[in-house]
Automatic annotation (TrEMBL), chain A:
Protein name per UniProt: Ligase-associated DNA damage response endonuclease PdeM
EC number assigned by the record: 3.1.-.-
Keyword Nuclease included in the entry's annotation: yes
Catalytic class of the enzyme: hydrolase
Domain Calcineurin-like phosphoesterase as annotated: residue spans: 28-129
Protein keywords: Endonuclease, Hydrolase, Ligase, Nuclease
InterPro entries, sorted: Calcineurin-like_PHP, Metallo-depent_PP-like, PdeM-like, Pesterase_MJ0037-like
GO terms for MF: endonuclease activity; hydrolase activity; ligase activity
SUPFAM superfamilies for the chain: Metallo-dependent phosphatases
Family matches, as Gene3D superfamilies: 3.60.21.10
Gene name of the encoded protein: pdeM
A matching Pfam family: Metallophos
Automatic annotation (TrEMBL), chain B:
Keywords on record: ATP-binding, DNA damage, DNA repair, DNA-binding, Helicase, Hydrolase, Isomerase, Ligase, Nucleotide-binding
Record-linked Pfam families: DEAD (PF00270), DEAD_assoc (PF08494), Helicase_C (PF00271), WHD_Lhr (PF19306)
PANTHER family in the cross-refs: ATP-DEPENDENT HELICASE LHR-RELATED-RELATED, LARGE ATP-DEPENDENT HELICASE-RELATED PROTEIN
Start and end residues of each Helicase C-terminal domain: 251-410
Protein name: Ligase-associated DNA damage response DEXH box helicase
Domain Helicase ATP-binding: 29-214
Keyword NADP assigned: no
Organism from which the protein derives: Aequorivita echinoideorum
PROSITE patterns attached to this UniProt entry: HELICASE_ATP_BIND_1, HELICASE_CTER
Amino acid sequence: MQITIEISQNHFSLHPSGAIFWEEKAMLLIADVHLGKVSHFRKHGSAIPAHVAYKNLEKLTEIANQFQPKTICFLGDLFHSKLNEEWQDFEKWVEYTKAGVILISGNHDIIPNYLYEDLGIRVYDEWVLDGFHLTHHPSELTGTFNFSGHVHPGIMMKGVGRHFLKFPCFYKTESQLILPAFGNFTGKYILTPTEMDEVFAIVEGEVICVSKK
Amino acid sequence: MKRSELISLAENWFQSKNWKSFPFQQKTWKAFLDGKHGLLNAPTGSGKTYALWVSIVLQYIKENPDYKTKHTKGLKAIWITPLRALSVEIQQAAQRFANDLETGLTVGIRTGDTPQSERAKQKRQMPDLLITTPESLMLLLASKGYEKTFKTLTAVVVDEWHELLGSKRGVQMELALSRLKTVSKELRIWGISATIGNLEEAQDVLLGMDPEFRKNAVLIKSSEKKKIEVRSIIPEKMETFPWRGHLGLHLLEEIVPIIKASKTTLIFTNTRSQSEIWFQKILEKHPEFAGEIAMHHGSIGKDTRLWVEQAIRNESLKAVVATSSLDLGVDFAPVETIIQIGGPKGIAKFLQRAGRSNHRPGEPSVIYFLPTHALELVEASALKRAVKEEVMEDRIPYLLSFDVLIQYLVTLAISNGFFPKEIFPEIKSTFCFQGITEEQWNWCLNFITLGSQSLQAYDEYKKVEVTEEGLFKVESRQIAMMHRLSIGTIVSDSMMLVKYVSGGFIGTIEEWFLSKMKPGDTFVFAGRTLELVRLRQMQAQVRKSSKRTAKVVSFMGGRLPLSSQMSKILREELQSEADHKRNTPELKALSHIFDRQEKESIVPGENEFLIETFKTREGYHTLFYPFEGRFVHEAMSSLLAYRISLLVPITFSLAYNDYGFELLSDQFLDVQNVIDNNLFSSEYLFDDLQKSLNATELARRKFRDIAVISGMVFQGYPNKVIKTKHLQSNSQLLFDVFRDYEPDNLLYLQAYRETFEHQLEEGRLRLALERINSQKIIWKQCKKATPFSFPIITDRLREKLSSEKLADRIKKMTLKLMK
């Protein structure tokens, strides 16, 4: 179901939900949940099913129960918009979860930091930890390996004839790994890999390495 | 004034112009003055405008005897036209008659092109006749106090009703009329339609299910028949004739003398890229035409198009290469000759194009047909017969289009607001929503007020609100504005403007085509070779280039399938070959192809269904020839492939065209097994189709329009791309969300319904299967590819069907790598 990869002697499990479990640190890395997006759209008259919003938190709970992490680190765009009613549900979730929560803030995170800090969440712009560089936007910092989100990576697979399929993916280059968006109401941006890149597609609840390397 | 006196007013006017009124015009005047509704079946350029406009003016005179001295204010009539381009000509004709009779009646136009100042003026004082489009009419219903504007209305005339009928714009029209019937007490509803197969139904759709309206209606047919002569361009040497290719350029020299011999020639192609290529090639081979030929299609800038249209009227052009953008409307007197490149796939379309040429009294319209591959010559032969026998296609009206209904309800909610109790009977009286249940109606109301079917805790959903009195109303100005910008049912692909760096607008191209290009790349568009300089927001800036390039701009949106009427005649033409009749010049020209087909296989006769199998390097080919058009073949091929894959583990690659389809596999397929297991059965059709086809993918494409029309996806403010980005989602994402979390959503289900009814033509597929079941199946095991099979097996646009798991399939697929 999931694939474990090794980077600088550390082990990372790529989970089909889009999360990564960093075994040595017992830390979950999760990018682009975009909580509040559904409510934001509904507020502006677009009738997206309201319960789609709760599914994100259910998904977070499930994955936390499975890995029992010490820390959960969100790589930005945790909230899509201003405060709305989904914040209350998020508060309850933070209270319930046993792990420590960290947010690396992203471009959509416009909710003031003190509101997170009131819930005991630490907020950083970036975080360097044991030679790993955690950011929202894909970045380069000499001597570190970068984990990021923001892009919502996806890839296109080509079959015989004119058969094309698109999937969200974990996208790894020599010094970077971009996580797929975790949120269920988020799109994807199709990347075109080079020969050197490694691509792990999420296909019907499985993580599959689809690149040659 | 008595009816006869009124009519003689009109007759005198006709005489003063040295014209003579036609019987259909007189019939229309009489019926209208008697207070009837109706549908007028008359071709373009036959005087249909005067049939109805004269009636409206006479009615005004009847009600206002001192009309010459005293003008009664208020809107009298609305004239709906599907194309803005037509409005000016109608205005001129109408104004001329109104002036000559000294009525003082005014004629105004209101479309998307009408300047804001003019619209404001109209709002203060409406003209007597308003020429407008269905979308602009909806916008009038979206403004406060619309009932006052429409109170004095005596008639709505829907011109080119056949064009609107088979589309969601037709549904929009039905809904608007249902409201006007209540608001305007003296309303008469009239439609004007070209000949289609289902004229009676067209009238029902226009008038709705209201028995009072139906009882009081007439169908008037003009007996004016245009004589049409079809001439095929038959290549002199058939052996050099290619089997495939859809351009027909090898016959280019054949049309040059035709162009030279006539004043103005319209050359119709089936796609925009095809017209770009033809235009380019004619100029390349015959530079002497430079400045004398032009091109006209929907993506070229409006100014250029208007220039071309004017140039046709001035007789300053020798030829115009065009697509369906010139099918409709305006009459171009100087056009003498029409050339159709490639099969037009439908009889009505072909006739409409033929009718674009001027006909001197007594002389037929001439249309040349240039086939792009050999079998299309059979189509030419079939078309001739269709013309002779007056066979016509139906236009299938949409049923239960909830997306359009939701848009309409919000429209009413932003103007006056509405009480469901009052509106529901109106909705139910339309043809489209005659079958709507209370449950579905409540669903729609919940959708626009709650954004769901049950009240959610702390929900902030906001669109339509319900006041204490039960009035459904939009209070938010932002929502009202967003809705006004989104009114309409035509959803286009994301378009980019193409402009010169130095300024100057050339046209619009779909974003996906430009997104594949890098600065410095060149492409052909609007007849020019252009170099892409940069992409900026939704604009592509280009400069002229002298480089040669093979990249011709291409557009989504596809090739039309053969209509069912056309397929039937085509089948009969081919079958006559089984008896070696060869009774038309086209069939004669194809003799050696039929001879070869008979040598390798057979030409199926009536009551015979041909299946061919043979082996090539590519694998085992199995070909089926239902002659039902590509949509039906698309569905039938995957249905059959799916059913076979239940018998034996197998993977197929599918190909189809308008004549038949192919299942290609790496293993031998025993056709006897297919026959013995009754795989052509029409039982469990719906279930099997859903499992076999990529029905989801097709529905996903349909859902795109539905999401936009119903207001779930906001396409943004014009010219302001960035600001609304936080509100832009794509319909794909929504589709997935509904599939996973709300699969009983009516809009989501509608996408499937439209896929089956309008795309896969389930009804037609069922009939085809029933026909095959009654036919004798002939299985020919051939040694090599047959002439019939060749165009199909060389098709590269293939789909695959397999019963393997998705994850396993992915492992066999390859990643698209950067080059």
